[in-house]
Structures are given as C-alpha cells and as structure tokens.
UniProtKB/TrEMBL annotation:
UniProt-listed PANTHER family: BIFUNCTIONAL NON-HOMOLOGOUS END JOINING PROTEIN LIGD
UniProt-recorded name of the protein: Non-homologous end-joining DNA ligase
The keyword Ligase belongs to this UniProt entry's keyword annotation: yes
Signal peptide segment: none
Organism: Streptomyces nigra
Biological classification of the source: Bacteria, Bacillati, Actinomycetota, Actinomycetes, Kitasatosporales
Regions annotated as coiled coil: none
Amino acid sequence: MTPITEVEGRRLALSNLEKVLYPATGFTKGEVLHYYATTAPVLLPHLRDRPVSFLRYPDGPDGQQFFAKNVPPGTPDWVTTAEVPRMEGPARMVLVQDLASLMWAANLVTEFHTPQWVITAPGEADRLVFDLDPGSPASVVECCEVALWLRERLAADGIEAYAKTSGSKGLHLAAAVRQVSSERATEYAKELAVEAERAMPRLVVHRMTKSLRPGKVFVDWSQNAARKTTAAPYTLRARAEPLVSAPVTWEEVAECRDPGSLTFRAPDLAPRLQDFGDLLAPLLDPRTATALP
C-alpha cells in the first residue's frame, strides 16, 4: 500500500520508499526524498520561477533514463505549470514553487534542470553559465585551473562568478547578470571560451568535437542558449552513487589537487550547509547582477 503523507496541506502518495536506487551505496528512494526535503530551503530558491526539465531515472542510474520537459501525466492540479515558448511550438512545463511540488517531483526520481531565465521573461538571461567538462585523463583538477582563469577574466568585466560541482566529473560556473537576450549571453560566453583556449591551448577546448577533447577541459558556453538547461544547484545526479551538484568555495577550487576533494554525496550536504549556508545565495540577489559588456 502506497503511504500518503501531507506536505504543506497537500496530500502526496510517496511510493517504493525502500527501493534501492543507488546500488553502490544502498541509497534508497526514501533517502532521496529525505535529502530533498532537508535541502529544500536552499534548493527551492534556485528552482523558483524557472521551468523545470526532469531527467527521470525511476529504477536508478542503471535503469532507463528519460528527459521530460512537458508536464508529466498525472501531475496534480495544484502543481504550478506555465506555457513556455519554443521554436517547435509552445509547451507546458512545471514550476517547482514550493515544498509540496518539490516532494511530488522528487517522488518521480529526477534530476532538476533549469534554463538561465525566469518564466516572466523567457529568453532573457539573468544567469551566465559555463559548464567545464574534462576529457579523460583530465579531471575536475584541470577544471579548477580553468575555473580560476575564467573567474579572473569575468572579474575584469565586473562580473562575479560562483562555482559548483556538476555532480559528475566537472565544474559549473555561474554569475548573475542584468537581463539580456540569451543570444547575447551565449555570444559573450563563447567569446570567453575562445579566449580561454587561446590563453591555455594545451588545457582548454571551446568546441564540442570529441576528437579534440581528450586530456582537455571543454568550456561549454552553449548552455546559455534559451532552449538549453543546466543541472540545478543541489540536485542529485543519476550516477552510481548519490552525487550532488554542490556549491564550493573558491578556496576549495584553488586548493583542489585530487578529484575526490570535490566529490560530494547527499549525506555530505547537511554539514556543508551548516558550515557555509548557500554559497550561491548571491545569485538570488538582484543587486549582484552585472550588465554584460
């Protein structure tokens, strides 16, 4: 029998709580839901007002995975949805605005991905992002070196960057910008990726071509496009272990000598939040937004 619980006055059926989703550690679906419930105070502000795309993996990372942008069948009528313009035609997507919606979505077993714009201004970027993706044998250690260069380069334009792990192999950088077209944000990000490659040709590549990437860090600037999304801060990832896209300090980035030092699992987040709070909180303050040059 599926247990029914009440969250903020909403009745939720939370299923298969004992099901092991991460066999490498025995992490269960119940623990996934507990993680999202306890992380909600810092996660929800980064999801709010942004249409959410779900990467679902209901049988764990080794099972079927599928990316869903449209409102899933069976979505409760109290979950906020909105029509989102797309090149191929408008779509209705979910907005995770509150704890009840977060727990409903977490029960589907999802990664949370968001665009760099809010629903009130589709295609007008208020975030700038770089996804630093290492090609083996490069690792997050090399990503950190590139991240430090990008941080200084962005600072030269008056833009303050913040870092988080991707929850996989790499690193994400994000900055708050005054609303600008996604096309301009993408153009600017590409300009900096090209500059990074010129400055560190043995370490950086700005093109996605697979043959160019072994041993280098791909600076993915394309996630600034209006149609693209990036893994949200604090989301769990569909990996062998319950890895998290976790904010990190610049001191941690500068001191990274071992990939394991920037690998965070769900149980690691509570003590980090106690020590640091939300390291990405400045992204939520409109006063920190900077105009692109």
